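Field notebook, page 109. I keep forgetting to write these up properly, so this time I am using the form the group agreed on. The chain and the ligand, 2BA, are recorded exactly as supplied. Prediction of the bound pose follows.
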Amino acid sequence: MKLIIAVVQDRDAPRFVGELIKNGFRATKMASTGGFLKEGNTTLLVGVDDDQVEAVLDIVRANCRSREQLVTPLASSGGSVDTYVPYPIEVVIGGATVFVLDVERYVRI
Ligand code: 2BA
């Protein structure tokens, strides 16, 4: 069994989760925040059999778009106070960041 952890943009999450459920997968949706942009995103946990990983990745590919965003990020100074980076940069976010982990044990009680 595998645990798929997918970090996706909030805008893609409803459709992505909907497609997972429609295709019979179980999923947990968590609100998360990107460390770099400090903006909200969505993290999905999807537990699947080994042979279902590619099917989930296909759903990710079909539902999670990459988008360019111009941002002026806050950069941590290493202390408790954030420092301001006074120039905008362009980043390409997504489609999705996906981790596939081996599951040692899966129990539903
Ligand atoms: P954020 O950390 O807010 O990153 C948003 C986007 O900013 C990234 O898109 C990337 O294009 C850019 N970015 C991130 N760190 C950067 C850096 N040090 N220098 C320049 N640009 C940087 P994605 O790569 O698509 O990542 C989207 C979100 O996925 C991330 O939001 C984060 O929440 C998650 N993520 C990405 N890689 C990760 C990783 N290795 N481990 C854990 N979470 C990750």
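OBSERVATIONS:
- The chain has a mean pLDDT of 91.
- The chain has one domain: 2-102.
FOLLOW-UP: compare against the apo run.
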